[in-house]
Design a protein that fits this description.
about 130 residues, alpha+beta, tt1808, chain A, two-stranded antiparallel ribbon, about 20% helix
Amino acid sequence: MWNRQHQLGYVYESSAGFALPDGSIRSPDAAWLSKEKFAQLTEAQRQKFPPVCPEFVVEVRSPSDGLAALRRKMEDYLANGVQLALLLDPEAEKATIYRPNQAPVEVADFNQEISAAPELPGFVLDLRPLRRG
C-alpha cells in the first residue's frame, strides 16, 4: 500500500531474486527497489535476476531457519548495499532492524508498529497482525 501511494519504486516478493554485487543470488521474502535503480537496468536484466541490490529487504524467520544464519544473511545484504533490512521472527515476536554502519536494533514484541523512515518516508509496518496469540 505504501508503494502504491508514494510510487517511488517497485515491490518484489519471495519469487524474485537479485544478483548481488558479491556474486550471490538472493531472494528475500520481500524487497523494494527505487525507480532510480530500476531505470538503470536494461530490459533484458529486468527479465532475469537483475544485477542490483534492493534498498530495502525483509526476511521472515520460519521454524526451519537458524537465527545465526539469518543474521549473517542480513549482514550480507548490508555489505552489498541494502539501506534497510528487517528480520521478523513471528515465533519469538521479535523484529530486528538493520542499517549500514549501525548496530542492529531489536524490537522486543509485536504489539507495535515500526517505521522504515528515513529510508522509506511514511512507511510503517504494523507488527500486530503477525502476533501468535
